[in-house]
Write a structure and sequence with these properties.
α2 runs antiparallel to α3. By secondary structure, this protein is α/β, with parallel strands linked by helices. Helix content is about 45%, strand content about 15%. The protein binds adenosine-5'-diphosphate (ADP) (2 copies).
Length: about 170
């Protein structure tokens, strides 16, 4: 079964993804991750970014049909700054924590591996504004597209993590 989580940065997609990973082929179309991977590699950014985008196009072409469900993590923009600026990540697993909403047992340390957590350079208020602008202009049309195909379920992503989990489970049952 194929599932897409869609929503602005900080809406909780990464946090909720472990609960579905065994059951679903969660196609992780993270444009942000792909661009960051391009930046991390030493080859010229433009070339790499292009390559990543071509790959994304290919993936969408192959998988655009046969998507079983799309969950739209609906949330007001005003909530996202606090979510994003408090986010701490365990880089190798992608696990995310929040200083206020989901603190690790020891500050700055991953609960499971004991390895250090990092903050993403672009997880600040200023860059968030441009990421949100990109979301509204590029990603929102995709939400409309899936709504018309009747595979879309809206998730109230502003609720506490456990309530969002219940909504996700209900949407998938
Ligand atoms: P996304 O993957 O959509 O960018 P994340 O899952 O990384 O978002 O969540 C962004 C930040 O908000 C993280 O620090 C996470 O711990 C926290 N968070 C996730 N879901 C909730 C929630 N329902 N309520 C409060 N904070 C949350
Ligand atoms: P994610 O939540 O998957 O990490 P981001 O919020 O980082 O995604 O990226 C959302 C959008 O912002 C991307 O689709 C892209 O258009 C744009 N974007 C992200 N990072 C960069 C960057 N370093 N340079 C230019 N545009 C970017």
């Amino acid at each position: 079964k194929r599932l897409i989580f869609i929503g602005p940065p900080g809406s909780g997609k990464g946090t909720q993804s472990p609960i579905v990973k065994d059951e679903y082929c969660l196609c992780h179309l993270s444009t942000g991750d792909m661009l960051r991977a391009a930046v991390a590699s030493k080859t010229p950014l433009g070339l790499k970014a292009k390559e990543a985008m071509d790959k994304l196009d290919e993936m969408l072409k192959k998988r655009g049909t046969g998507i079983d469900k799309v969950l739209n993590f609906a949330i007001d923009d005003s909530v996202l700054e606090e979510r994003i600026t408090g986010r701490w990540i365990h880089p190798s697993s992608g696990r995310s924590y929040h200083t206020k909403f989901a603190p690790p047992k020891t500050p700055g340390v991953d609960d499971i591996t004991g390895e250090p957590l990092i903050q993403r350079k672009d997880d600040n208020a200023e860059v968030l504004r441009s990421r949100l602008a990109a979301f509204h202009s590029q990603t929102e049309p995709v939400i409309d597209y899936y709504a018309k195909k009747s595979v879309l379920t809206n998730i109230k992503a502003e609720k506490p993590p456990k309530e969002v989990t219940s909504e996700v489970q209900k949407a998938l049952s």
